[in-house]
Amino acid sequence: MAALTCLFFILHHVVTHPVGTLDFANFYTAGTILRKGLSHQLYNLSLQLKIERPLSPAGPFLPFYHPPFEALLFAPFAYLPFSLAFLIWDALNLAVLGIIFYLLLHAGPSLDDDSSLI
Fold it and tell me: What is the pTM assigned to this prediction?
């Protein structure tokens, strides 16, 4: 049931908000800057705007302000088209969420076992 609720909220967000307004655009932009060999210009706002604007024409400019090592995580995504990279990123996030739910289900004492409550 929790997975269906999460899926509903994700679908609702995708329908009501264009992809260009999501913050993934600034991460993808940082990965693109690294992929192009311009790591020394990672925090150059005009370069970020130049790369991000085609990805997010309707959304606000979201500069990359994270530590530089985080940009390395998104560099592989920059080899893919933006929409495919976004879908893969979402799938990875959902997989991690599923793993967390699985671990939480098996981490605590069973609620059916009265002896574990003492």
Answer: 0.71
